[in-house]
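Weekly puzzle thread! Below is a chain. First person to post its structure in token form gets bragging rights.
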Amino acid sequence: MADDSKTSNVGGRYAQALFDLASDENKIAVVEADLKSLKAMLAEHWRLPLDQQQALFERFLSDYQHGRVQRDDITLIGFRVREDRGRALQSSDRGALAAE
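Winning reply:
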């Protein structure tokens, strides 16, 4: 089996780094609220074309930054999920994809 130690648990390491930064600045509740707001925005607009989602995300980010200079890189990856036979997912399929 290949050694994937550089990529394993990336999500966990990201979450720990985010928690550490928020904790160091005594802003855990603020970061939690920001993440909930981002998740809600993405969940509300997930069916829009990606270019429209991008515009919404950029507006969300601009509002979030309040004119502050960006300190770190930001990456958001989007893709369209299709079932076999190329049928796009329907709104009734959304529940299976939603993270709790």
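Puzzle host: Confirmed. Bonus trivia for everyone else. Residues 10-97 form one domain.
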